[in-house]
Amino acid sequence: MDNSRQLDMAGILADVRAQYEDIAGRSRAEAEGLYQVKYEELKTAAGKQGDDLRQTRDQIQELNRRIQRIQAEIEALKNQRSGLEAAVAEAEERGELALKDARAKLGGLEGALAQAKQDLARQLREYQELMNVKLALDIEIATYRKLLEGEESR
C-alpha cells in the first residue's frame, strides 16, 4: 500500500506539474503577447515622439532662421532710420541757415530799399528845386528877351 501511495503521489505530482507547466506556458505566452503588444505600443509611441521631436527641431531651426532674418531686417531698418534722422537734422540745419541767410539778405534789401526811397525823395526834391530854378531862369530869360526885343524895337 505504501508503494501505491508513492505511485499515486508521483502521478499526482506529475499531473500537478503538468497543470502548472500548462498554466506557466499559457501565462508565459500571455505575458509574451502582452509584452509584444506593449513593446509595439512603446515602439510606435517612440517613433511618433521621434517624429514629433524631429518636427519640433525643424520648427526650432526654421524659427531661428526667421529670428535671424528679422533681426537683420531690424538692424538694417535701425541703420536706415539713423541715416534718415541724420539727413533730416542736416536738412533742418541747412534750412535754418538758409532762412537766416534769407532774413539777412531781406534785411539788407529792406535797408537798400529804404535808402533808395530816401535817395529818390532827395533826388525828387533836388529835381523840384532844379525845376523851380529852371522855371525862374526861363521867366528871367523871357523877361530879358522881352527887354531885348523892346530895346531893339526902339
Secondary structure topology:
Blueprint: H1 2-153
Could you characterize the architecture of this molecule?
By secondary structure, the chain is mainly α. 99% of the residues lie in helices and 0% in strands. The chain is built from 1 helix and no strands. The chain is rod-shaped. The N and C termini lie far apart (217 Å). The mean pLDDT is 91.
What keyword list fits this structure?
mainly alpha, Keratin_II, intermediate filament, coiled coil, 154 residues, Keratin, type II cytoskeletal 8, rod-shaped, IF_rod_dom
- Poorly predicted runs are none
Q: Tell me the overall shape.
A: rod-shaped
Structural class: mainly alpha
The string of secondary-structure elements, in order, is: H
Mean pLDDT equals 91
Radius of gyration: 63 Å
Distance between the termini: 217 Å
Biggest pleated-sheet summary: none
Task: Report a brief summary of the structure.
The chain is mostly helical and about 150 residues long. The protein has one helix at about 1-154. About 0% of the residues are buried.
